[in-house]
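INFO batch 0412 | record 1 of 1 | parsing
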Amino acid sequence: MDCSKIFKKLPKKFHAHFSGIAYGPRGERKHLKTTRRFFEPLAEQLIERNVDVTLINESPQPYKDAAMMKRVVSVKIKCTVVL
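INFO prediction complete | emitting tokens
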């Protein structure tokens, strides 16, 4: 997922709803579980651009997935600081 063009158009502080979506013949069918693989590219862009964002997770397991997202961001921030 290449978010760079989108980030250029966003303000420095914003909120966004985040989850994968399964589509059917008539449009949006359901929200999907947020996986680490799906979220990591966005996390990297958020950290690299120093964006002040509130992400609202809309997966079927929002608390569990939000906790995973927080862990991913925390680890990536620590790795960035060490480098």
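INFO post-check: The CA atoms of residues 67 and 73 lie 10 Å apart.
INFO record closed
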